[in-house]
Model the fold of this input.
Amino acid sequence: MAGQYRSRVSGIGSYLPEKVLTNHDLEKMVETSDQWIIERTGIERRHITPEGQATSDLALEASRRALADSKLNPEDIDMIIVGTVTSDRQMPSTACYLQSKLGCRNIVSFDLNAACSGFIYGLSIADQFIRTGMYKNILVVGAEVLHRFVNYKDRETCILFGDGAGAWILSRANEGDNQVIHSSHMHADGNLAELLTLPGGGSLVPPSQAVLDSNMQYVSMKGREIFKNAVRAMAQCCQEALEANNTAPEQVDWIVPHQANKRIIEAVADQFKFPMEKVIVYLQETGNTSSASIPLAFDWAVQTGKIKRGQTILLTAFGAGLTSGSILLRY
Ligand code: UT7
Done:
């Protein structure tokens, strides 16, 4: 990819609300079992945002931590991108609320909806703005309060999703710095859009009593179809990243995949004969947090000493759309 400058990850942070919903809690709400959920997904618990708090509140905590890690101040940030499907309000963007709460300058701030690929899409867009020289420090956030859009009577979906936020700051790298983002790739296949939707409340089916009566305000998903497409899309995106950088799987220290289902992650790793010991799995703690899942897993891996500065990392995601993407970077 051409460009005058390169981006480096100058700071990371994440945030999970304190309250936890365990598999055992769900056993009391729908016909399911801890054993089924663990065997079929790997998830043990997910975190739930308290009443009165919204996506921008989670994003704020994660962003403050990323700013502290980068040793930058809110005034240093030139642009904010928030990947989310659960924005505080339909309008305005969560990014504008976050800008105000952080005390940033009057900078460009916007949300993007690429579902679970939102963080990858956000990093890729930020990387382009840094490469051209337009901006120096960009805050990219993935944040979701998914539990408010999940039907706790639908056992196929309610066991999967949780709340959380993760934030990275991409900064212009110094010349010769090799701890940079090497490549980003993004895709979308709108022909598969109906496999995973939030059908009610938009312009096609606006809010109404009928929407509430038919539970159309909640996530609707064809799980098995999503599963197959997720494995295919993430494997393709990994392959694309490796080929674009002339990199062999053995040269990658860690894969940090979207945290949706442990079996999906294992199937992707298997396609590259990539050992699971080098794949970050954090979904046992978080469930699927959509756009927040990769920065949450990444931060946890750094905090626990797995991922270290200087290592080569491959990020990959898929989500509703169906969107997908990958990023290869040296951290
Ligand atoms: O970020 C993208 C978001 N979405 C995803 O990543 C979802 C991807 N898909 C999946 O993770 C899996 O398809 C699920 C976890 C949703 C389901 O697992 P599965 O192994 O594909 O199960 P299945 O849909 O084939 O269902 C097997 C059985 C069914 O019963 P019958 O028809 O065989 O009698 C389901 O009704 O398991 C049943 N089942 C459950 N049983 C206990 C479905 N959900 C549950 C549950 N507890 N929570």
User: Anything to note?
Assistant: The chain has eleven helices and 13 strands. The chain has two domains: 7-172, 181-330.
